[in-house]
């Protein structure tokens, strides 16, 4: 029974090692996701800066269209009006693209938050497994000592049996 327990403990330790390696890989993936999150944050800051620039351009464009007296200076100027419309269209497309990027960024942040939660859980699980592993290793060492004592006592019994036979 002692030998079976020892082998079972050794199998448990081996299984824990495999689990530990898998969890370590998950933790590495979590670190990669965190790096992507940092890149997304930087992109978000850049996007916010571009939005501010776009708002400034829109305000400037609105000021040009109204003219100094607040009147629409594009009346009767078809070429200029067409130019303003294309600028407005371009700015509108830029704003739509930026909005789409913000939506994607928010989704990525949500995914990252979920990934961080999972990574945290995995890290906690790794710690639990390491604690369990060290306990199993102590038990295994105790079993080895007990096995050595058993072998020694068995040898003593064999010797006593031999002495009584003589």
From TrEMBL:
Positions with biased composition (Basic and acidic residues) = 49-59
Q: Where is this region: Disordered?
A: 49-87
Q: Which UniProt keywords apply?
A: Coiled coil
- Where, if anywhere, are coiled coils annotated? 98-132
Query: Where on the tree of life does the source sit, at the highest rank?
Result: Eukaryota
Name the chain's protein.
Answer: 3-dehydrosphinganine reductase
UniProt lineage: Eukaryota, Sar, Alveolata, Perkinsozoa, Perkinsea
